[in-house]
Amino acid sequence: MRTLTADAHGVYPIAPTPFFDDGRIDIASIDRLTDFYLSCGATGITVLGQLGEAPKLEHEESLAVATQMIRRAAQLPVVVGVSAPGFAAMRALTREVMDRGAAGVMIAPPNTLRTDDQIVGYYQQAVEAIGADVPFVLQDYPLTFSVQMTPGVIRRIVQALPSCVMLKHEDWPGLEKITALRGFEADGSMRHIAILCGNNGLFLDYEMERGADGANTGYAFPDMLVDVVRLSAAGEREAAHDLFDAHLPLLRYEQQPGPGLAVRKYILQRRGLLSSAALRKPGAPLTAAARSEVDHLLERLARHDARARLPSA
Amino acid sequence: MRTLTADAHGVYPIAPTPFFDDGRIDIASIDRLTDFYLSCGATGITVLGQLGEAPKLEHEESLAVATQMIRRAAQLPVVVGVSAPGFAAMRALTREVMDRGAAGVMIAPPNTLRTDDQIVGYYQQAVEAIGADVPFVLQDYPLTFSVQMTPGVIRRIVQALPSCVMLKHEDWPGLEKITALRGFEADGSMRHIAILCGNNGLFLDYEMERGADGANTGYAFPDMLVDVVRLSAAGEREAAHDLFDAHLPLLRYEQQPGPGLAVRKYILQRRGLLSSAALRKPGAPLTAAARSEVDHLLERLARHDARARLPSA
Amino acid sequence: MRTLTADAHGVYPIAPTPFFDDGRIDIASIDRLTDFYLSCGATGITVLGQLGEAPKLEHEESLAVATQMIRRAAQLPVVVGVSAPGFAAMRALTREVMDRGAAGVMIAPPNTLRTDDQIVGYYQQAVEAIGADVPFVLQDYPLTFSVQMTPGVIRRIVQALPSCVMLKHEDWPGLEKITALRGFEADGSMRHIAILCGNNGLFLDYEMERGADGANTGYAFPDMLVDVVRLSAAGEREAAHDLFDAHLPLLRYEQQPGPGLAVRKYILQRRGLLSSAALRKPGAPLTAAARSEVDHLLERLARHDARARLPSA
Amino acid sequence: MRTLTADAHGVYPIAPTPFFDDGRIDIASIDRLTDFYLSCGATGITVLGQLGEAPKLEHEESLAVATQMIRRAAQLPVVVGVSAPGFAAMRALTREVMDRGAAGVMIAPPNTLRTDDQIVGYYQQAVEAIGADVPFVLQDYPLTFSVQMTPGVIRRIVQALPSCVMLKHEDWPGLEKITALRGFEADGSMRHIAILCGNNGLFLDYEMERGADGANTGYAFPDMLVDVVRLSAAGEREAAHDLFDAHLPLLRYEQQPGPGLAVRKYILQRRGLLSSAALRKPGAPLTAAARSEVDHLLERLARHDARARLPSA
């Protein structure tokens, strides 16, 4: 059974949506990506997230992408992003992907929410819409969504809504938030949920030490994320940091809002996983200067991590 | 032919979406509303706008509502709101409603746009997505969308995109903006477009005097809007103001963001046009206190305008 | 004794800062305004508010304006706006104006606050800065400050901070908020505070009926506000609405953000209270078109309220 | 003569304001910091910036801090942050610090600006207020100020206002912006200005390669910034990256909004430059967990850079 639960841990890569240069969806690359995630030790996959270019897909395309990945991922739980401007669309997409075998859904807050009550109320309504039996991931990404959830608000959501099983933690700064949430679990005021970290893993090294269960992000070297999570869990602290630090210059570069997704797709192409680095409009390709900076970063990284030794694009 | 052009004028009511108490769409009320718009002198209709609860409709429902109104409205041009988080969904809905006879579409800016170039670029991409042959209405509503378009930005859009034929003017304050745009037309730096005013018509009295072509808003007395536009165009200034001022206390009350739509539906129900005042969730019905305030406002209005003399709800 | 308490009621006009055409402060007009407020039945005065052009004053000027009004107002309590980007400046100004006889201070939230805890925390820190013995007015104006305070948050502030004695209520929509706060008082969960309404009085008619204690706003006819508050308190409901409705077209015009202050100063000049309608930069004077619209509104108002029968500017 | 010009280059550290544990200003630490900046090769200093806790200082304190640093810095140009909610306060502070020998001032945009014209207009008014003879630094930090300036808007400001001599570049992402601005200089459409990079130097490595003139940020190892700028200018590309990369884990940690300043002060205290790491309220000290993370980062950094080998706090 592949139902998302609060025991989730490890690395759930955020899958990009592969396109051909002409904008059509590239099914073979979806399969290649999925196989790669399986082979490198991912414990789940998230599709149609913020960086999966979901809003650029027509409804049937979204379904096709999610379905393809769910089928290909065999035993791995696949979480599908269903954030939508209205509950009707959210409910419809949720129903369809759960029918096709999704393990759960991810819901980001609309950027109009302000007060604590508005945030809690929104998730209550969302659960009413999608059904209380569908496990969901709470996405906490203030930098992108402009919605600030305090630890207390997250606790209110977790306590009110049993189907909330995982936090995609991408607050920034966010280390104290993990400590606060784990403190709530320790003092019995909040049940346990999985905390997997996003924000391209920019603080994954210390997030693991604060009590995170893993990563849920799209960095182009998910195999590094898997290693860092494993080393950290195994208590090999300095080894985890050494590997993480070697990747940090590139990871930081990929974490830039806007061009970051083009960087990611470019690297995934160089890694042989995507046949094209194309984004759908209005996404722009990397400039020549940026491409050469990424090449330089990969070259420098390759001194420490052989996986970055790649053929030219 | 019912294609929206820059010669549009008069009153295009923003149609609410009628629901039964249980949330199902109420087709008979759509017909009743449409017939009423026709009978009171509307020159067009807009459906699936911000206050048409569009995000609460599933895709097939949106289509059904738009199609029903297009058919029923016979010769009147019907504009359909197609704002969407992505261009793919916008293109899909546009294609479908244009195929069914819509006169044009209305596009609001996403609230993430900030710079002038971002705004202009967004509309260029939108037109690329929906096709340059589809006439569109530029919705300028900073209070709701947090996007501020200067007159210069509107001119850039109008000059770059011939399919932009109408401005739904709801900036606040907005009188000088109309003057500035008409000034651009006068000095030859911008071609003529229709300017129809929204924001519940809160400044319609003086907007007409500044050069607006009419109203494009959802106030529950579109028949009053039609009269004010007609009187103003006929030079009957004080008569236009007298009628407008009589409605202003109620109009202001209905213009409140949030409960405003419930006020509107409640009045339309009292007018016999909607069988129910129900909103879909998360919309809330009026409180008893608010309902009695609206009743009071209607009673006071009835002293000046017999159309407000209504049976109890 | 003129210390602000939770028993405050009636009308506290928001005083504009009078300038000469060359930008110097016009002390004689301050005196004239103050005398007028006294004569027309105001029960207090607020200076250096958002629309008192406070940020355009140098520190010594702010002090001079506040001091002049405090002295002239004799027995009336004068509240001074002390909102500042930092607590050091807030503390310094508070100390100075309280020494000079201010009745209390008004504090608006910085527009960076988002969560409930941030808002409550901000006011706790502010009170720590200015001293728990200084009565303060909580300004709740989301339209301008982008900070949304739920009734629950206001209750937290009131309960935690005994020196919070008054709410400047300018939320929009805001009627249900007054009902909720008075409900907290009725159920014993919040102590009583004064609620005086701002937002140019746009909903003063029904706000009084919901339980407000009066008005705290800068509309150019504070004498009308005094009458409406008095009539409403005396149970003369229709008379209160008749007077209010007669002013609503102009009041709405003056309530526009941006040009509204120029409208207000222009009317106060026409009423003989200000020697000049000048704003300090970057404030712009009214355009000729706007001025003639205000003249027209005054002319129409004069048919119902003789106080609007004014000599030309 | 120490007047800021468009030829500025190198490293202008952003100086923190040193406090004792009880909140009083620590003059001896100001001197120690200044001497350190001089000794490590800084080419200028900026005081009272966003991270100098300027809003927490009373006016006389601000002046005292700036004056102390100006005197101590001998020949180095000192830039003073004068951002204020109103032009009156900005003008007053500017006058005072220029009289005391400041080389120029830095002005950040208020977070209410949206359109291109509003941004340009704001700087025009600011220059009118402070005087066209005072050189100023344009601070471009959208992450903190929510104001987005396109390269075109910066060009408009530079061309309209000759006293704009430097850009504090902290847009994120920002590499292409440097390329665009240098492109404007190359094509003759914009005169040359200094571009010094902020945002804690997170992209300083590639910003230098894109054409930046140096750094203007507060990272606790300004001596590293000086080395990177020097190595980069000297064409020692890999050496510059090696040093930068060694610092990146710590630099990223210090760049966190909120706790970042406490991190910085803690490190400066460990370096013996500040006698206390105290922040004024509402600033919070580092948690024990955070402190131990910083210690860990320093320890790891010390393997590559002996300057990080510090006695315990």
Q: How does the major sheet of chain A shape up?
A: 8 strands, parallel
Strand residue percentage of chain A: 5-15%
Domain count of chain A: the total is: 1
Indicate the overall shape of chain A. Answer: globular
CATH architecture of chain A: Alpha-Beta Barrel
Strand order of the largest sheet of chain A: 1-8-7-6-5-4-3-2
Instruction: Provide the low-confidence segments of chain A as ranges.
Output: none
Give the count of helical stretches of chain A: 12
The H/E string of chain A reads EHEHEHEHEHHEHEHEHHHH
Quote the distance from N terminus to C terminus of chain A. 39 Å
Please state the oligomeric state of the protein chains shown. homotetramer
Helical content of chain A stands at: 40-55%
| Overall mean pLDDT of chain A | 96
Q: What do you see in this structure?
A:
4 copies of one chain form a homotetramer. With 313 residues, chain A is α/β, with parallel strands linked by helices. Chain A has one domain (10-308): TIM Barrel. The first copy, chain A, is 46% helix and 10% strand. Chain A has an 8-stranded parallel β-sheet. In chain A, α1 packs parallel to α2, α3 (87-99) crosses α4 and α9 (222-233) packs antiparallel against α10 (237-254). The first copy, chain A, is globular. Chain A starts with 9 loop residues before the first strand and ends in an 11-residue tail after the last helix. The A-D interface holds A 172-173, 175-176, 179, 202-203, 205-206, 209-210, 238, 241, 244-245, 248-249, 252-253, 256-260, 287, 289-290, 293, 300 and D 172-173, 175-176, 179, 202-203, 205-206, 209-210, 238, 241, 244-245, 248-249, 252-253, 256-260, 287, 289-290, 293, 300.
